[in-house]
Amino acid sequence: MSGVQLQLPELFDEFAQRGSFEEESYAQGFKCVAGLDEVGRGPLAGPVVAAAVIMPRGFLSPDIKDSKLLTSSRREALAPVIKQNAVSWGLGVVQVEEIDRFNILTASFLAMVQAYQTLLPAADCILIDGNQMIPPELFGLGKAAAGFLPRQRAIIKGDRLCISIAAASIVAKVARDAIMAELDKNYPEYGFASHKGYGCAAHLEALQRFGPSPFHRRSFKPVRDVCEEQVRSDAGSLFSQR
Question: In whole angstroms, how far apart are CA 68 and each of 98, 221, 225, 236?
């Protein structure tokens, strides 16, 4: 975050502008505008999760902001409020196998597509956090051929500037945290409930000690290094037994 502290008028202006991206899209003639965001690109384990949220036109709330600026308890309190007020919302979850099969960026886009495709009514304009739009081919050739692709707009720091993206960031974060808490019940040795799969010191130590679980991303270097070390160790053991 910047070291410059916003004064009250600036804070009000920032809040007032957070619905401007949606309103601009509606003014251009779009009927349904959704915000999309994902969580879980960086962790060494667990899925990547995306959410898509359509808020009512003109909806504003000072409480709904970038999920990273909120405590866990605040996110959990806001997620049901968002769902209750939303015109529509949806989740996309891409598991470790697909992350390793493609790559994390493509997997993140696939999760966004899944979330978008659950929306009813369908969004004809989607606002995406970041600087990249979803490659059209990931929506599916059938939909592309039928001309059903939504208009996309990538917004840098969109989760701080756009209320529907901020809402999506909260819904996605709460959903992924719940998934990691469930994984922790079956694999408590890794501490998934506390670090959510990110590569903190405690997680790296557990990875070295216990090896990867089925939910670790083997295409990520710290996990791949442990796998290769295990292969070398197993090969050395076989050689020494001969």
Answer: 26, 25, 30, 45
